[in-house]
Write a structure and sequence with these properties.
387 residues; 2 domains; 13 helices; 29% helix; elongated; binds flavin-adenine dinucleotide
Amino acid sequence: MKFDVIIIGAGAAGLFCAAEAGKRGRKVLVLEHNAQVGRKILISGGGRCNFTNREVKAENFIGNNPHFCKSALARYTPPDFVELVKKHRIEFYEKKLGQFFCRESARQIVELLLTECRRAKVEIRTNCSVKAVEKNDLFKVETNQENFTAESLVIATGGLSFPKIGATDFGYRVAKQFGLKIIETRASLVALVSANSAQNFKKLAGVSVDANVSFGKHSFRENILFTHRGLSGPAVLQISNYWRKEKAVSIDLSPTANVAEILGNNRESKQNLDNFLSRILPNRFAEIFTADNLPNKPLNQLSNKDIENIAEKLNDWQVKFSDTEGYDKAEVTLGGVDTNELSSRTMEAKRVKNLYFIGEVVDVTGWLGGYNFQWAWSSGFAAGQAV
Ligand SMILES: Cc1cc2nc3c(=O)[nH]c(=O)nc-3n(C[C@H](O)[C@H](O)[C@H](O)COP(=O)(O)OP(=O)(O)OC[C@H]3O[C@@H](n4cnc5c(N)ncnc54)[C@H](O)[C@@H]3O)c2cc1C
């Protein structure tokens, strides 16, 4: 069966690209190996899909070439997607930090994409595993169902995170088959695992603290969440995009208060340190963290050195992590198809005519907060206009 365009992967980028290409009159086929399309969309944003962000800039993305994403993001913007959401009468709200979520369910975003595809006469085949891809004049795609040919082939198979819902390395394998370079991949937007069990994260598991988390020149102010093995929570997931094993992460556990200053101002107090700290930190945290890490004395017995140490531990806690929780728990995959291999306007491989890569398989990774879906829409749009 012959098509103008075959898209492999019926996730966010693939379905969006399919609808755009179909609207231009292209005969489009989408192949998905799962029984259901858009499974990652369904579980995203806690089931409500954080589908974009009010402000999306190149600085919100990580990749070897920080400028690559600019062209696509400028041509299909967050307001464009919000317009589409409104057109489909999906109720949404801005939660925090410009993050837009569906009020009801992420399923509405999958339905939006399917409706757009239906209107654009896109054919979608589920339960369809691709066995091989070849290129002569046309691309030939061999599957467990039939063999298909097309002038253009779009790879939209996403990253490696969440293999239990269908993530594969297929896209990277196709890139390698055609001689394209891959930037090493790594699990990201993911919890970090402590290098030092003595820090006894277990006791604090479940406690959440407002913190400022920094690594190198990158800082995020949001909650951190203690887990049995280390730290999670939005600020830690954000920093995981930048984290490298060699260096400690710096955590300000009291970003609104200079601990040295407030302890200095209360030197007459007979209150124990843990009680005093529960004014600025959650009770359970103040109690356990003080018992394990700080001298738990009445404030009037603290020496200057004690105050210096306590302030350092709380305003600049240095934590070494040994690993991440891995692809099973990660929201995204860093790295991917090298953007030097692709046109930033169309997502076409510079060295392989009519072969396109879009979405998470490309070495463009967004922050937590709707940025990764915006990249899926924008890169899908760019290719959808070109195929
Ligand atoms: C738990 C979780 C929550 C998230 N929440 C958000 C959020 O709220 N906001 C946000 O912006 N981002 C979120 N993300 C990230 C976001 O889901 C992804 O970045 C986005 O889905 C990437 O789109 P994509 O189309 O490139 O890949 P995907 O959506 O992963 O789609 C790839 C598709 O290709 C299919 N596929 C893979 N291999 C093959 C193969 N060999 N043959 C055929 N089909 C194949 C897959 O089954 C899948 O359907 C979340 C991720 C996770 C894991």
